[in-house]
Amino acid sequence: MPINVSGKTIETDEEGYLVSRTDWNEEIAKEMAKIDNCDLSTNHWEVINFLREYYEEYQIAPAVRVLTKAIGKKLGPDKGNSKYLYELFPYGPAKQACKYAGLPKPTGCV
Questions:
Q1: Is 42 helix (H, G, I), strand (E, B) or coil?
Q2: pLDDT, tens digit, 9 for 90 and up, residues 10-36
Q3: Which residue, 1, 7, 86, 89, has most beta carbons within 10 Å?
Q4: Helix then strand then coil, % of the chain, to nearest 5
Q5: Whole-number pLDDT of residue 106
Q6: Is the Cβ–Cβ distance between 103 and 55 less than 8 Å?
Q7: Are 28 and 39 in contact (CB under 8 A)?
Q8: CB-based contact 50:74 (threshold 8 Å)
Q9: What is the pTM of this model?
């Protein structure tokens, strides 16, 4: 189901993930979040940018447990816990944040 951003049609799969990672930009992330009634704050962007860097390095989207641990290491224990991440991404931190980051659906997520 495609989304329209700045007059451009962007292809997404049936769950809303980008078909082509190269289509991603911040405007697309904001549009995806808007569809989910989510307003992206600085805290959301910290997680989204972290995921994009993680993916560049490991070529895989982390599962939620790995994400939580890695965020804790990089951004501190107050942000590296599931409660905080679920407050930001109520549909599942790994799934929802990866979608906004333009990454494939993390493995281990159903």
A1: helix
A2: 999 999 999 999 999 999 999 999 999
A3: 89
A4: 50, 5, 40
A5: 79
A6: yes
A7: no
A8: yes
A9: 0.91
The CATH number of the domain holding residue 19 is 3.30.1420
The pLDDT value given to residue 49: 96
Who's near 50: CB < 8 A, 6+ residues apart?
70, 71, 74, 75
Q: What contacts 3, CB < 8 A, 6 or more positions away?
A: 9, 10, 12, 16, 28, 31, 32, 35
Q: Which residues contact 100 (CB under 8 A, 6 or more apart)?
A: 29, 32, 33, 40, 44, 48
Residue 74 lies in domain: 42-100
Residue 98 annotated as catalytic = no
- Is the domain of 14 the same as that of 48? no
Residue 106 within a domain: no
> What tens digit of pLDDT does each residue of 50-94 get?
999 999 999 998 888 889 999 999 999 999 999 999 999 999 888
The tally of domains found in the chain comes to 2
